[in-house]
Amino acid sequence: MQIHTRPIDERIGWLISLAEAHSEDFCSPATTLARQRYLARHPTRVMVMKCMDGRVHIPHATHTPLGIIQPFRSLGGRFDLGWPYLGEVITHAVESATRAGHGVLLLITYHYSRGDHARGCAGFGCDTTAAMEHTQEICAQAEELFGADGQSVYPLVCGFETDSDALIIHNRRGDALDISSLYHADADDLPRRLQTLCPDMPAGFQRDLLPLLLGNLDHVDALRGADRELDIQHREWAICVGRGFDFLHLPNTALIIGPYNPDLSEPIIKAAGIIAANMAAGRIPDDGFLLLTSSPYEQMGVDRARARLKSRFLCEFAAQVIGEEFPDLARRMIARSAVVDWPTRRLELL
Where in this chain does the record put each Carboxysome Shell Carbonic Anhydrase catalytic domain (predicted)? Predict the structure, then answer.
């Protein structure tokens, strides 16, 4: 991805073009029909709670069509289902799915690097044990919120190893299935392995999780032996705050912060620190970085007007935080706010 080394104006132009192409592809007849066909075969709704780290890109690593997985991002994958806005968004998504007769598979993720402890999750100070313990806390909260039987909402703890892009599936007994330990010859045995690991997972959920695991197996196998030094290091050059960043389907480009934490300054400060470190290490040019905020809307009128106000507020807030904590970096910040027409995924710069 040579875009990482280009001047900041070219990088921003490339990102906007990526957003435009994504909307065109999302709305195309072929992609629309393929998405509808996929959802008809695999009706379980998949939500993923994950870190803002640009290396953690579940659709890319599982070869899942865009628009299938609903992401929730926060610093270190730290969440609390008691957060007012987060609880509202997740509950609304679950209720919408169940009213349509679909279950919800909630993937609660942590990430780490097998090759270098220092490449782990900055949100947890590279403490993988602490990150894993936090996923168990979220899992317990999900069971309290949606029921412990797992029949409508099944919370599943998943690790993501950033050196190999491999998923690690955990069950409630402490056992795990590491996709990086498997090869193509093991693909036919994956259904049995999953059923053995998670016998309490409803059959429909297992059926709809398997495409993600098989896609991850293909992805991991294709990367074996490849030189990934630039991919496994932080190289992000954009900070994105808000929702509606589905078009960023290339990993290691942006640090994406969902607007869920009541104290948004913490993840923004951490993200700015990562950008500054990337510049200092020469992993990206030091000529500038992009701050992009976004808010989706479903309908014209009041809904779109509110999205505009929300996106502008997020932009002003994030810019102020970065300016106070990283004044030198702030001088190289290019701030943009946008809204996203959610039915078409069209990004509209304000």
Answer: 99-171
For residue 309, CA distances in Å to 32, 63, 203, 276 come to: 30, 35, 44, 29
261, 74 Cβ separation under 8 angstroms = yes
Do 176 and 168 touch, CB atoms closer than 8 A?
yes
Q: Which residue has the higher pLDDT, 86 or 250?
A: 86
The number of angstroms, rounded, from the C-alpha of 121 to the middle of its chain's C-alpha atoms is: 14
The side-by-side arrangement of strands in the sheet containing 69-74 is: 69-74, 45-51, 104-112, 153-161, 166-170, 176-178
CA 324 centroid distance within chain? 27
**Which positions ≥6 away from 40 have C-beta within 8 Å?**
none
340 strand-pairing partners = 296, 347
Least Cα distance to 21 among 300, 249, 236, 254 occurs for 249
pLDDT in tens, 145-188: 999 888 999 999 999 898 888 999 999 888 999 999 988 888 89
- On the 0-12 / 13-18 / 19+ scale of CB atoms within 10 A, 80 is middle
Tens digits of residue pLDDT in 297-337: 999 999 999 999 999 999 999 999 999 999 999 999 999 99
Domains and CATH numbers, the chain: 44-229 (3.40.1050.10), 234-349 (3.30.1330.140)
Q: Provide the pLDDT for residue 29.
A: 94
Q: How far apart (Å, rounded) are the C-alpha atoms in residues 277 and 120? A: 15
Q: Which of 349, 219, 244 is nearest to 296 (CA)?
A: 244
